[in-house]
Amino acid sequence: AWTGRRRLNLLVELVLGTTADGSLTSLARAVGVLGRILRILTVFDYQPPARLGWEKARDRVMDIFTLDGASRVPVEQRIAAAEALGQAGDPRIDLLAPEMLPVPGMEGVLLGRYPVTVAEYNCFIENNGYRDRQYWEEEWWNIKENEGWTEPMRWYYGQIEYQNRPVIGVSWYEVAAYCNWLAMRTNLSYRLPEKNEWGKAATNPKGEYPWGNAEPNPELLNFDGNVGAPTPVGIYPAGAAPGGHLDMSGNVWEWNMDLYKKGGSSRVFSGGGWDFDACFCRSAVRCGYQPVRRFSNLGFRLSRSVSLGS
Predict the structure, then answer these.
(1) Among candidates 157, 9, 164, which has minimal Cα distance to 88?
(2) What phi, psi does 203 have (nearest 5°)?
(3) How far is 67 from 73, CA to CA, in rounded Å?
(4) CA dihedral sign of residues 203, 183, 152, 244
(5) What domains sit in the chain, N to C, each tagged with a CATH number?
(6) How is the beta sheet containing 267-270 ordered, strand by strand?
(7) Which residues of the chain have pLDDT under 70?
(8) What letter would DSSP give residue 116?
């Protein structure tokens, strides 16, 4: 008789069997799908037997996000595999518990390992983020209503299908509201980073870029239009900042909390974008724009204050 466990084993075998072409992209898609299923099945204490090769397949895919693993796979293949994983289910992304890392040399501050992703921001949208006034200060709400915003720019035609890319096309007001929503949902002090916090995390004492002094190249970051779009978060481990924060240079610019100039209204953003050249990707670069503006290369990452010793 076919028991439930045997049927599940067959399902795992069938999904992994879709990777017969042997490509990393196919394997990533299968791993993403199975990962979603297996997370649900943990309540039934089910784990695929080793002979099916699930753990080996998962480890091969997730290895592209490590320094050693990435060095063995060309960046084009890493991007394709990470995109497939994102569409099927990227296990690195926890919608309500983003991975936060200490900022070297700053006590009491955590900064997101990655920029906030499309999947995370979509959770805000689906939980009435644009319809519930409690997340928006009155001025922010009035601006949102006047602009007619119900989601980021190009949301359904260029973003929603790329779940593990950084969210883009969001104004400062929208990302501030997201931070308020997540803080209320989790009872943790999520917010936008102050420019000195962001800058401290991005700074490497050995050079002017997060990774040090090596000249930017396509293995270190997404810049200068060499990919043509944002890339999934975290696929450039060689470009990591000293504290382990990823994508601090290139991929997307990131909104900061601060005003750009005292007495003005523009807000700071940092980090350089996928379509900007290397000089804008230096750790010290700060730009400013009106908080209402939205761009296809501008997103954000989270900061959180923590009590010392917690």
Answers:
(1) 164
(2) -85, 130
(3) 10
(4) positive
(5) 4-88 (no CATH), 100-305 (3.90.1580.10)
(6) 286-289, 267-270, 253-259, 298-299
(7) 1-2, 20, 308-310
(8) P
Between CA 187 and CA 124 the distance in angstroms is 15
CA distance 220 to 235: 9
Residue 271 sits at the vertex; the CA angle it makes with 265 and 276, to the nearest 5 degrees, is 100
Residues in Cβ contact with 266 at an 8 Å cutoff, skipping those fewer than 6 apart: 259, 260, 288, 289, 290, 291
Q: What is the C-alpha separation between 163 and 73, in angstroms, rounded?
A: 22
- Paired tokens of 164: 């593990």
- In this prediction, residue 113 carries a pLDDT of 99
Whole-number pLDDT of residue 16: 84
- Confidence (pLDDT) at 1: 44
Supply the pLDDT for residue 181: 99
